[in-house]
Design brief:
Shape: globular
Helix content: 25-40%
Strand content: 5-15%
Structural class: alpha+beta
CATH topology of the largest domain: Glycosyltransferase
Distance between the termini: 66 Å
Largest sheet: 5 strands, antiparallel
Oligomer: single chain
CATH class of the largest domain: Mainly Alpha
Number of domains: 3
Number of strands: 17
CATH architecture of the largest domain: Alpha/alpha barrel
Strand order of the largest sheet: 1-12-13-14-17
Radius of gyration: 23 Å
Length: 548
């Protein structure tokens, strides 16, 4: 066994031991090689898929109720195909990938959301494998940069701690002051700007939900554990919560209150989610003791969030300043507590009420990043001062579903789809973000943005417009059928199956609905329609069902 392998093996055992008892994962010292925990080491060249050649194999939506959505769906895929890339020689990237469509860099935050709509094209298109290139650039202490040059494979230069200083934010121009804990040593490889939004595990499990492919989980488990540990080492404040500077919300009113070591409700909640998702992956891999340790840590952190970040008078979650006071800025970041399962039922009810309140978040187009009752709100968007973002809307919708608030989740999702569709009707494209008080792009916003906005015409349309929701681990497809016209999907892909599903409402007074399913494999189909539910066993070949 080489010294490097010995270092890795011992270090990983130490990491798990630390999770079971000690408060933070110690960095591996003296190692600067990147990608040492990820088994995939090189790219095997193959042709990139093209839209013209692949379109006829992708899911083909049927929606007579609104053909505009079908047009927007295909436009999103066409734009997405423009952003598929092969690794450049010498970049160190190991997989084909979809790019963020923002600049010449790939982004951790964006790529996780991009993978969510690519799941419905799996394995025809680069999707979840795009995350491989981040794991391949992981430092020995577990750090992963949120932004990497797609040509050179180098971390974005401004997020590299070339000064070898203790943790600091280059964007916000402050050094972190740790309160109630030691300053971590050695210093991190990256700045605070690079260490936010730990949502890799969410993306990986979303992929499993749709594709059913669990083979990646063994490959990514150690990189994920290492990344989790690095955030504990460098970004955990002495109060047990997690530090950020701006958390990719560039000009949010919250940012001024995060100065010098303030802790954030979103990144703290994401670490709860991360811990529980690592536990879920550990269970699937048979690592029961490790799963227990992750759940224990996640529960401890959730308790701290509720004790310190919930304002009982305002009935909302807020960031904390460096001196431990509740920050006054109210933002969409608070809703991460739903997706993470941090909120109690009563707290979730209060958050849902905010989403129904037209004076705050229930604007013409929900959910604004800054609500209308917060100083600094911009009705035209103003980027993170009010714009509606497909990324944060996806978080809100999925969080509501976790608390069984399905009606509100679907209402917001369908509203988002409708508003994005209205802007598509007038502009012919999709945008980076949207105005909260008008059917228009946000100001500013990039056009032709696929980009995370591909989630709306693809995922929202398939799952909420047409109503098809995959549950690959249980080999089940649920169809919430609400359209009164012909709808369905050709070549719908999930759990390795390809199925064409069509619902044709009857024109006679009986109201009977005929459903046909042609599939290349067996699965369970649950149909929900008109307050009733039917369970069907789909067999290989043609199936015909009647909803009566």
């Amino acid at each position: 066994m080489t010294n490097r392998v010995l270092t890795r093996s011992v270090a990983f055992l130490v990491a798990i031991a630390v999770l079971l008892g000690s408060p933070a994962l110690p960095p591996v010292q003296g190692e600067t090689v990147q990608g040492m925990y990820f088994a995939k080491k090189q790219y095997v060249p193959k042709p990139l898929p093209t839209f013209a050649e692949t379109k006829g194999k992708l899911p083909g939506p049927i929606f007579d109720e609104n053909p505009l959505y079908v047009q927007m769906y295909w436009k999103a895929w066409e734009l997405g195909f423009r952003n598929f890339y092969e690794p450049k020689p010498g970049s160190g990237f190991v997989s084909q990938f979809i790019d963020a469509a923002f600049n010449k860099n790939i982004f951790l935050w964006d790529t996780c959301f991009l993978s969510m709509f690519c799941n419905y094209g799996h394995p025809l298109v680069p999707g979840i494998g795009s995350l491989d290139n981040f794991y391949a650039k992981q430092y020995a202490d577990g750090e992963i940069c949120r932004e990497i040059d797609r040509t050179t494979g180098r971390d974005y230069v401004e997020w590299v701690n070339r000064e070898q200083k203790d943790l600091f934010s280059r964007w916000s121009h402050f050094s972190v002051t740790y309160v109630g804990r030691d300053v971590p040593a050695p210093p991190p490889h990256l700045t605070l700007d690079a260490l936010n939004h730990p949502i890799f595990a969410w993306a990986e499990l979303e992929s499993v939900r749709v594709t059913g492919d669990r083979s990646r989980l063994k490959l990514v488990y150690e990189p994920l554990v290492r990344y989790y540990g690095a955030l504990q080492t460098y970004v955990r404040q002495g109060n047990g919560l997690y530090i950020t500077d701006w958390a990719s919300m560039d000009n949010s009113p919250r940012n001024a209150y995060l100065d010098k070591g303030g802790t954030a409700v979103d990144t703290s909640s994401q670490m709860v989610m991360f811990g529980n998702q690592l536990a879920q992956i550990a269970d699937l891999l048979g690592k029961k003791e490790e799963a227990t340790a992750f759940r224990k840590e996640a529960a401890r952190l959730a308790g701290i969030i509720n004790a310190k970040m919930w304002d009982r008078k305002r009935k909302f979650y807020f960031d904390l300043t460096a001196d431990g006071k509740l920050a006054p800025a109210k933002t969409v970041a608070a809703f991460w507590t739903l997706l993470a399962g941090v909120a109690s039922i009563e707290q979730a009810d209060a958050l849902a009420a905010e989403l129904r309140n037209p004076q705050s978040f229930a604007r013409k187009h929900r959910v604004p990043s800054t609500p209308a009752d917060q100083a600094g709100f911009d009705p035209a968007g103003g980027y993170w001062r009010g714009s509606v973002w497909p990324s944060t809307n996806t978080m809100v919708v999925r969080g509501l579903e976790r608390y069984r608030k399905d009606d509100l989740a679907r209402e917001i999702a369908c509203e988002h789809l409708r508003m994005v569709g209205e802007v598509f009707r007038t502009t012919g494209t999709v945008w980076e973000n949207y105005a909260p008080d008008a059917a228009s792009p946000g100001k500013p916003a990039k056009g032709d943005f696929v980009g995370w906005t591909g989630i709306v015409p693809i995922v929202y349309f398939l799952e909420y417009g047409i109503g098809l929701r995959a549950d690959a681990p249980n080999n089940r497809l649920t169809w919430a059928l609400t359209s009164k016209k012909r709808c369905g999907c050709e070549r719908f892909r999930f759990n390795g199956h390809t199925a064409t599903l069509v619902a044709l409402p009857s024109s006679d007074p009986s109201g009977l609905v005929a459903v046909t399913v042609e599939s290349d494999g067996k699965f369970q189909l649950r149909v929900e329609h008109g307050g009733k539910r039917w369970e069907f066993g789909v067999k290989t070949g043609m199936n015909r069902f009647t909803l009566d």
